[in-house]
Amino acid sequence: MAGKPKLHYFNGRGRMESIRWLLASAGVEFEEKFIETPEDLDKLKNDGSLMFQQVPMVEIDGMKMVQTRAILNYIATKYNLYGKDIKERALIDMYTEGMADLNEMILVLPLCPPDQKEAKIAQIKEKVTDRYLPVFEKVLKSHGQDYLVGNRLSRADIHLVELLYYVEELDPSLMANFPLLKALKTRISNLPPVKKFLQPGSQRKPPISEEDLEKESLSMTGKPKLHYFNGQGRMESIR
Ligand SMILES: N[C@@H](CCC(=O)N[C@@H](CS)C(=O)NCC(=O)O)C(=O)O
């Protein structure tokens, strides 16, 4: 029997979190090896484990898989979460690519310079309520089923629910006009493996803090990353 998949990434959400969500929702146990220092990353790079010298990397079924989407595609296919035919798969791909676009905006938000952050958040909120959530609310309304595609659980539901948790963290009122999405979130959250993943102490990661960001940047570059205005102020002594 193959061992558990082993996930190599920082101890934070980043690009690995959707992989954690998908595995956990499929009821698959996994191990994690966190990158904590520049040396940890160098080791992976130098031993040839990283095809493009980047993480996420997942050891699974004798492979060292990189590229987030490739990893997600493999897991979704393996655990039958990718539709029953190519048309369902095409729908799932369209939905999940839209979700990935929104997820990316939220993912890079902590990297936004402080003086631009408010405007960026406003822009994301507008995209959430005017572009992305209406699409998925409309899909659910159009067929009246419990899942986005094919009347059964697929990766599209799992990625969407992950995203809805982030949207709620940003501002819970953003969900106000989307009753079917709220119901989907509750329904999927109550599936036993998802419920388990949502419990405190699971491998789900919290939002990134300034401190984590600093650590992650340190483990990527070996250099501390300073977030401040281009002026002396309180940062100057730290410089
Ligand atoms: N397209 C890649 C992008 C991976 C990526 O940008 N990884 C970052 C960490 S989140 C990284 O390893 N950066 C180091 C580098 O590019 O040298 C994916 O989706 O996996």
How do the helices and strands line up, and which of them pair or pack?
Blueprint lengths: L5 E4 L7 H9 L5 E4 L3 H9 L10 E4 L2 E4 L1 H11 L7 H22 L6 H30 L11 H16 L8 H11 L2 H7 L11 H12 L18
Parallel strand pairs: 1-2
Antiparallel strand pairs: 1-3, 3-4
The structure holds glutathione.
What key attributes describe this structure?
single chain, 239 residues, alpha+beta, Glutaredoxin, Glutathione S-transferase Yfyf (Class Pi), Chain A, domain 2, four-stranded mixed β-sheet, 4 strands, globular, binds glutathione, glutathione transferase activity
What can you tell me about this protein's structure?
The protein is 53% helix and 7% strand. It has 239 residues and is α+β, with helices and mostly antiparallel strands. The longest helix is centred in the middle third of the chain and has 30 residues, at 114-143. The radius of gyration is 19 Å and the shape is globular. The mean pLDDT is 93. The site of glutathione has 9 residues, from loops. Glutathione is lined by residues 14-15, 53-56, 67-68, 220.
Main pleated-sheet profile: 4 strands, mixed
The Rg value, from CA coordinates, equals 19 Å
Strand order of the largest sheet: 2-1-3-4
Q: Could you estimate the helical fraction of the residues in percent?
A: 40-55%
What is the fold named in CATH at topology level of the largest domain? Glutaredoxin
Q: What's the average pLDDT? A: 93
Unique ligands: glutathione
- Tally of domains: 2
* CATH architecture annotation name of the largest domain: 3-Layer(aba) Sandwich
GO cellular component, one term: cytosol
Family: Belongs to the GST superfamily. Alpha family.
Keywords: Transferase
EC number: 2.5.1.18
